[in-house]
Amino acid sequence: MDDATLAEIESALGQDGVWVAPELRSEISPQDEHAVEQAVAGSGTPTFVVLTEMEYADPLTGSFDQLAALIHDDTGRDGYYLGLPVEPETLPLEVTSFPEDLDAYQAARIAWFDHPEDVAAQAAESVELLDGGTDLSADYDQRVEEDPRAAQMIQDAYFGGGDSADEDGSAGGIWLGVGGVVVALLVLAVVFRARRGRRRPVATTSRPTPTFALPATVVRSVRAAETRAREEQATREVADLGEALDRAPLDPELTDAYDAWQSALDHYELARRILDRSHTPADVVGAIVLGRRGAEALRAAERGRRWVPGSPCWFNPLHGGSVRTVTWTDPEVEAPACADCARQAEKGEEPTDTLEFVADEATRAYFRLDLGVWSRTGFGALEPDLVAALTNG
Ligand SMILES: [Zn+2]
């Protein structure tokens, strides 16, 4: 999915609350769409329905909750968001809500039992159920209890009809009754876990490494506060860059400026995507670095200049630009460093304000952890084109 499509979706949701992808037109007619729009219009709770095919490989639409979070982030519209599951597409619709409503997904399941083959009807009924003010979990439990075929439907949806049911349904009898429901729910839990495991984190987390000991609780609370503060800082700085990009006057005749502006935009988008998805403390530092570089590129663009990324301090990219390169031995690297870090490193000391993260309940310098592209590039210190490094993995 590209940003133009995302903007189109956000605009359509602002008008009537429903967006249907062109490629789904053969399955969802304009009349179907109209029925969903009417359900949304009749609902007392803001509800948004996005019917578009989801793909694991797409960084924008890796799952519906990611897409919904992105739309919510862009538009600020609270409410329920309904969309298609990634796969199999015959499963109930996904429901995400802002603020979070942990029972909301039960509405989609009930609607799925009622209209297993009809996505638009599921969407319309889900919208009505979500607005109904009833206890959805209790409704769902009652539905399964009263109609044992519900358990069979779950089984079939995940694994196909298979051999468990013949034409008169007698072999399907093993799924009848409470035992069957319990088995089906266990199967469901396993499948959900497997699906969750397939999501790709932006960067890998640390690998266990032997380390010196610090009181675990102290480490955890200090680092947790630091992580929260950095998260807020990253969110603020990246949002500021986005606003500055919106305001920036741009003369397309000035090609150097245009390239710099494009770099600023690339850095901004990457930073925002990192923050919109599930991320590690290292990702947050990466987003801050990307945001600052983007701001630097934008300043160059505004002066009509070209922009070439510089190297931040390798010991701690949050120190800003490096002033000279020092030879470091653990690990072996010619490290661009800020003045303070360079001075300490040249005396053979590890700089006191090295960027650290918690691993195995103790702190370790980020460059001794396996943080994927972050440790490999030193947050851009060793490989200045961080956008290319991140995009190409
Ligand atoms: Zn430094």
Task: Looking at this protein, list some descriptive labels.
Diaminopimelate Epimerase, Chain A, domain 1, two-stranded antiparallel sheet, alpha/beta, four-stranded mixed sheet, 393 residues
Short description:
The strands form three sheets. The protein has a four-stranded mixed beta sheet with strand order 1-2-3-4, with helices on both faces. By secondary structure, the protein is of the alpha/beta class. The chain has helices at residues 3-16, 30-42, 64-75, 105-114, 119-131, 136-146, 149-159, 177-197, 216-247, 255-276, 281-302, 339-346, 373-377, 386-391, and strands spanning 18-20, 47-51, 79-83, 94-98, 324-329, 332-337, 356-359, 362-365.
Question: How does the SSE layout of this entry go?
Answer:
Elements: H1 3-16, E1 18-20, H2 30-42, E2 47-51, H3 64-75, E3 79-83, E4 94-98, H4 105-114, H5 119-131, H6 136-146, H7 149-159, H8 177-197, H9 216-247, H10 255-276, H11 281-302, E5 324-329, E6 332-337, H12 339-346, E7 356-359, E8 362-365, H13 373-377, H14 386-391
Helix pairs in contact: 2-5, 4-5, 4-6, 7-8, 9-10, 9-11, 10-11
This protein binds zinc ion.
Zinc ion (ZN) is lined by residues 313, 315-316, 319, 337-338, 340-341, 351.
Written overview of the protein:
Strands 1-2-3-4 form a 4-stranded mixed beta sheet, with helices on both faces. It is 51% helix and 10% strand. Helix 4 (105-114) runs parallel beside helix 6 (136-146), helix 7 (149-159) packs parallel to helix 8 and helix 9 (216-247) packs antiparallel against helix 10. A hairpin with a 2-residue loop joins strand 7 (356-359) and strand 8. It folds into 2 domains: 3-146, Diaminopimelate Epimerase, Chain A, domain 1; 216-392, no CATH class. It is elongated and about 75 Å long. The chain has 393 residues and is of the alpha/beta class.
